[in-house]
Amino acid sequence: MKWYQEALVRVFSSNILTFLFQFIAWGSVSVLIAIDKLGEFNFHVYLGALPIVIIQALVMTYLIRWVFKFCTKNININ
After folding, report:
1. What phi and psi values does residue 5 have, to the nearest 5 degrees?
2. d(CA 40, CA 31)
3. Model's pTM, two decimal places?
4. Which of 33, 60, 68, 70 is the most exposed, having the fewest neighbouring CB atoms within 10 Å of its CB?
């Protein structure tokens, strides 16, 4: 496997790394949405949206893990 394929396998085969990846991605999206709606960054509004970001990251983590396991069940990753 190429280096970037190995990196993706390592990230998506770990629950913690996948969750951190999703949390950063959805946290960034929520910041952009908050700035777009308010015209400026409001930390209080962002903290109010944080539980939704965490739930979204958890849901996407388990969906990605399920798809990853399904797609790689016949592939020897080692």
Report:
1. -70, -40
2. 10
3. 0.67
4. 70
